[in-house]
Inverse folding.
């Protein structure tokens, strides 16, 4: 599912020349709107790689699960650490589960 940006959390990466979500999007889809908030310019071109969701430093981008996986309203939220990534899954009944994986081997 294409990213959903919470405009109350997005700070436009503090007006840096190219916001982080724009830098990492392999399809060059993320951009800032006239209010300085990130948007996906073409939802149908998004291939759900979640790079923008993972890189956002303020957690402003949310991925909604497609109904085939979790029904509308279910969410998957990544938290990237130095050596790990933690995925928080919230289903339609508000049940929360967390899954932590190593991303680097020392
Ligand atoms: S990375 Fe996050 S804070 Fe920065 S512009 Fe994108 S959505 Fe906004
Ligand atoms: S999920 Fe991937 S392809 Fe879609 S807007 Fe974000 S970075 Fe781009």
């Amino acid at each position: 599912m294409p990213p959903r940006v919470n405009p109350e959390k997005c700070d436009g990466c503090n007006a840096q020349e190219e916001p982080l979500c724009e830098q990492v999007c392999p399809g060059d889809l993320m951009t800032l709107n006239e209010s300085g908030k990130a948007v996906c310019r073409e939802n149908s071109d998004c291939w759900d790689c979640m790079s923008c969701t993972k890189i956002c430093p303020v957690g402003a981008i949310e991925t909604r699960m497609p109904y085939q996986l979790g029904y509308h309203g279910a969410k998957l939220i990544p938290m990237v650490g130095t050596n790990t990534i933690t995925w928080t899954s919230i289903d339609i009944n508000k049940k929360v589960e967390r899954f932590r994986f190593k991303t680097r081997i020392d």
Notes: Strands lie at 4-5, 30-32, 38-40, 61-64, 75-80, 84-90, 96-102. Residues 20-24 form the longest helix (5 residues).
